[in-house]
Amino acid sequence: MHLILDGTWPEGHILPAETELARQLGVSFGTARQALQILTKEGVLLRKPRIGTIVTGRTPHHTLDRFYKHYRLHNTKNELINTQTVVKSVQIRPATDDEIRCFRSNKAIDVISLVRVRKHNARPVMIDHFSIPEHLVPGFPRVPGDVPALLLGHLRDEYGLRIRAVREALRADIATSEDMSLLDLSVADGPTAVLVIDDICFDSKNQALLKASHRALSDDYRYVNEVQ
C-alpha cells in the first residue's frame, strides 16, 4: 500500500508475480498472496486474466460507505437535516444509448428506472433519477411503495452489489416541467434554478452498476460533500 500511495506503483501499474513480489518485500509467499487478496477486495488492485494484478488508482478510503457518510443535505445555516424519501415510479425500459455506453454493454439491455423525491418538513427539495441494469437485480420491487428507502444498502444486502467508487459531476440547470411538478414549484415564480448532480457508481472492478441524476433546490438547501 505504501508503494501505491507514494506513487512508486501508479494507476495502471502491473505488479510482479506473487513469488517475485514476496521476494522483493521480504515476506512469505502466503503473506504476499493474502495481501493481494485483501487489496483486491478493497478495490485497490484488480486482477485481469492473462495480464496480471493491476493498480486501480483507488485507496480503501474511496469506498461508497465511507464516502456517503459525509454526503448529506444541509440548510443554509450549515445544519444537517434529514429527508423523507418517496418513490414516485418504478419502470423497466430499454437503456438509452448513454446508459448502454455507461454500463459497457455490447448489446441492448433493459434497466430498472426509479424516480424518487426527497422531502424536508413535507417540502420536496430533491428529485432522484436512478437506472440499474435489470439483469443485475432480478426480482427488484416493481411497486414504488415496496422499494427500500436505503437503496444502496438494499443493492448490497440483496444482490451483493458493493459500490466501491463514485464519479460525480455538478452543473446548474433551469427546472423542467417535470421538476416543477415534483418539486411543487409555481409557474408564477418564473424560471427556477436547480443544482444537478450526475453520478455513476462503480464496483471494485471499475464496472458501472448504477447511474443517477439528482436535481435539487438550492435556495434554502446545500448538498455538502465532506471527504475525510
Entry summary:
The protein has 228 residues and is of the alpha+beta class. The chain is built from seven helices and ten strands. It is 22% helix and 35% strand.
Structural topology:
Elements: H1 2-5, H2 18-25, H3 29-41, E1 45-48, E2 52-55, H4 64-68, E3 71-75, E4 84-94, H5 97-102, E5 110-120, E6 123-133, H6 151-159, E7 165-174, H7 177-182, E8 193-202, E9 208-216, E10 221-225
Antiparallel strand pairs: 1-2, 3-10, 4-5, 5-6, 6-9, 7-8, 8-9
Helix pairs in contact: 2-3
Main traits of this protein?
six-stranded antiparallel beta sheet; elongated; two-stranded antiparallel sheet; 228 residues; Chorismate lyase; single chain; 22% helix; alpha+beta; Arc Repressor Mutant, subunit A; 2 domains
- Secondary-structure content class: alpha+beta
Which value, in Å, is the CA radius of gyration? 21 Å
Q: Mind telling me the CATH class of the largest domain?
A: Alpha Beta
Strand content: 35-45%
Number of helices: 7
The CATH superfamily of the largest domain appears as: Chorismate lyase-like
Largest beta sheet: strand ordering = 4-5-6-9-8-7
What is the number of beta strands? Answer: 10
Summarize the amount of helix as a percent range.
10-25%
Task: Provide the CATH architecture of the largest domain.
Answer: 3-Layer(aba) Sandwich
Task: Give the number of domains.
Answer: 2
Principal-axis shape equals elongated
End-to-end gap: 18 Å
Low-confidence stretches: 65-71
Largest sheet: 6 strands, antiparallel
Structure description:
The chain is α+β, with helices and mostly antiparallel strands and 228 residues long. It has two domains: 2-55, Arc Repressor Mutant, subunit A, CATH 1.10.10; 64-225, Chorismate lyase, CATH 3.40.1410. The chain is built from seven helices and ten strands. It has a six-stranded antiparallel beta sheet, with no helix packed on it. Strands 1-2 form a two-stranded antiparallel ribbon. The chain has a two-stranded antiparallel sheet with strand order 3-10. The model is unreliable at 65-71 (pLDDT under 50).
